Amino acid sequence: MEEAFNGWMLAGGAAAVTILATGWGHVKSLYSQIAGRVVVKITTSGFQADAILLYMKHHFTASRFGPRAYVGWKLFVRPKSRVQLVSMEIAPPTGRLYWQGWRPIWVAKSKDGLGDMEEGLQAADYDYQTISITFPRGTIDPDTLITDATNFFNDQVRDYESTGGRRHSIRFVHGTAGNTATIQMKGKSGGGSPTSSSDIRACLSHRPLGWSFSDFGSDPGEDISAVDRLALDDVTRDLVCEAGRWRQTEQWHQERGLPWRRGYLLHGEPGTGKTALARAMAEDLDLPIFVYDLATLKNDELLKAWNQMLAEVPCMALMEDLDAVFDGRKNIAVQSGPGLTFDCLLNCLDGVQRADGLMVMITTNHLDKIDPAIGQPGAIGSRPGRIDRVVSMGRLDDEGRRKLANRILHDWPQWIDDICHAGQGDTPAQFQERCGRLALRLHYGEADADAVAGAAVASGERR
């Protein structure tokens, strides 16, 4: 009798639990329906999440109560002329209350996924995160909030109004090709991450402590052209002039149905200034540079990074030492595992997706290892649309040597003729080192000027 009673009790308990669980689901559903009539909850991710956080920072007042979160980024600080650790307050993971007048709004990280939308070209970024925004119904219009945040984001980030109007920055693109270790993909923290010490896009939604955003990044107030610091021959000076005209003729190209893009292949022995020229041109043209480490990239990684870059045009894609990655069409940089294929590279350089506003710069030390599908010398080039012009960068001529010598040895002009003679046949890197070494010894008075100059000349004669 007792066993039967216990059996009925167990069965009844199980039934009660089932009924309670079913009922609780209905209770939660009912609660959600009621709460939805009282409050509005928005979930957003990617660039849109960044836009919301940036907009909240400038147009809402953060509550002084509740949790606080801070992060430190290594950024170039102009007043210090150094890369320094900068402390910034970020949105805490548990959420924070903001006020716009009397209207409250709660912003927090969301545990809800956005499904397939997370893989969209514009949704995923280096600063990927998903946030939820909750506020009383009727106090804020959701569409207006999203639209205002988007417009403000475009003004601040794309036009860089908060950073002196400059867009130039250097961003490095790496991949996982050739890495035999087990790679665990970590979810983004949502705190943002600068891709270089001069790129502050990821930090604009934060609050810096002790500095303002005008203190970070490359100095837009410099009057000296970056290209003018270099010693160039007639060919490279013509290249710089052509690139400057390209930058100013977007509408001209559009009116004629011409693609507004350029591709240059710079070749020459090491030390001839190929990378220096590319970076100086980007700085003067105010273009963000995306530096691709092709040896570490797989096909899917390059495609994803390339598509994200195209959202930032006008910009420059820089691929250094292509001959160290591809010998013809063979990837010689990755010995095991999947690596970048030549076809994938070609598809990015000249694929179906429009690339108006893109300048491609490729450098190589060995032109003979470059497949003609990329580009070879000629009156027009072997493959316009990918590489429009192939430029040879060689050793300095007399004019180039004198330009560098006048800049470095301006306190000792009487030795410029000697050092220029000694440096015949130097690459720009070699001649700069020659002048710098002489100037430093003269500056510290470590040797008689005649002896130093004589040693410089003798060094040149021994070459």
Descriptive overview:
With about 475 residues, the chain is of the alpha/beta class. It folds into three domains: about 40-165 and about 190-215, no CATH class; about 225-390, Rossmann fold (3-Layer(aba) Sandwich); about 400-460. The protein has helices spanning about 1-40, 45-60, 140-160, 235-245, 250-255, 275-285, 300-310, 340-350, 400-410, 415-420, 430-445, 450-460; strands at about 40-45, 60, 70-75, 80-90, 95-100, 105-110, 130-135, 170-175, 205-210, 260-265, 290, 315-320, 325, 330, 360-365, 390. The strands form four sheets. Strands 8-11-12-15-10-16 form a six-stranded parallel beta sheet, sandwiched between helices. A hairpin with a 2-residue loop joins strand 13 (about 325) and strand 14.
How much helix is in the residues?
Answer: 25-40%
Write down the CATH topology of the largest domain.
Rossmann fold
The pLDDT mean sits at: 79
Radius of gyration: 30 Å
Strand content: 15-25%
**Distinct helical segment count:** 12
- Care to count the β-strands? 16
Most strands sheet: 6 strands, parallel
Query: Structurally, how many domains make up the residues?
Result: 3
CATH superfamily of the largest domain: P-loop containing nucleotide triphosphate hydrolases
Uncertain segments of ≥5 residues (pLDDT<50)?
A: 114-127, 181-191, 458-463
Distance between the termini: 111 Å
Which CATH architecture of the largest domain is right?
Answer: 3-Layer(aba) Sandwich
